[in-house]
User: What shape does this take?
Amino acid sequence: MGCSKSSRNQYYAALSANLLSISYGASFGWVSSTYLQLQSPETSHLDSGPLTKDELGWVTSILSLGILFGTLFFGWLADRIGRKRCFLFVAVPVVLNCLLIATARNVVQLCVARFLAGSVGGCCFTVIPAYITELAEDRLRSTLGTYMSLFMGIGALAVNILGYFFHYVTVAWIMLLIPAVFLATFVFNPDTPQYLEQHSKNGVEKSLRHYRGISSRAIYNEEFQTELVKLCKPSHTLKIGEDKHLHWKDFTHPKARKAFYIGVGIILANQLSGCLTMLKYATVIFKDAGSIQSPLVSAIVVICIQLVGTYSATLFVERAGRKTLLLLSTAGICLGQILMASFYYLSSLGFETSSFSWVPVAAFSLIVFAGAIGVMVVDFIVIAEITPPKIRSVILRVHGIILSLLATFIVKIFPQLSVSLGIPGVVSMFAVFSFILTIFIAICVPETKGKSIEAIQETL
Assistant: This one.
């Protein structure tokens, strides 16, 4: 990373906080890694027997309901007790999720575990973007913001690789290492200076010095003093004075409304493009497609591609810009879905496609890579940047709720849609949405590259 002394603590805070993202990423990829084991009488430890297709739908979709709860509860808790204490509390559902999966004997227990895992995701999607935006310098904000998706990809890859070699019960015990490491590392980070200032807490200057790497005994630093004065006497874009209490007019201001609607569009791109839904059902898609590759191996390959895409986003998000990455992302997803749908459609018509059995994996890899450089990575970064600071926490919660409701609905109906429309029909439907959302991003989403939060607000 090549971080300097002034940015070292910012990198450390982002890395340690995103250990929670590894945990959620593992939960997200858990279905792909355990689906075949839960479907087999020999490897399923459930007293109720192997999972049916309907039970699989519930076990998968309940994660999104957990996200909804986590978005509401942990978003509120982060404002109530602070970002740091909220993150430390989140370690509890992480531990409980692992313990429940390791000891589950029926579908209900699995669903409870998945709900708890989803609540961790709700915290990640709402609190981590706010936390990073509040502590990071303008030049590091987007780079540090991409770590959430990168670490989620690492978690998904880890659980799939472990699932290839070990039973899912053993994997659950191994995953307990994540909250242990998180608690041992994150506890040293102070709360963000912006949170402390907005809630009239002590330690604003101490926190800012920590994240800027400036000792209290250091000589006068003009840049630091300017930032401190600006932080303690904020000039809100909405021009509503120094009143720190939220009012309805804070949300109905034209710039606030515009930022909200753009955020909704970005959330729709995240979900209706189908990238995340297809990733959850990776092994199922490859199995139904008749791919000669092992479904789990195919899923591992796809997740590796996702990590490459996410890492590429961390390198180019400041160079190429957020809007450019979002455009490339939705356009690339659309192209991959067209290729995949064409393969499935020709196969269903009886054409000889055995020599092209690599096409589903290649097309899926393109979809995931394209998603990883844009809609899966910079969505909440852009939303946090364009939302006025005073209402950021609340708006992030609202967008998290919209995301979780959409995800729950789409993931739950995917197995039924794949039966009624077939894989070609479902993927074609996602391709249409991806095309429409590409046009929306091109017209409506502003570029935030290289701009301060205040400058971004002025452009809305």
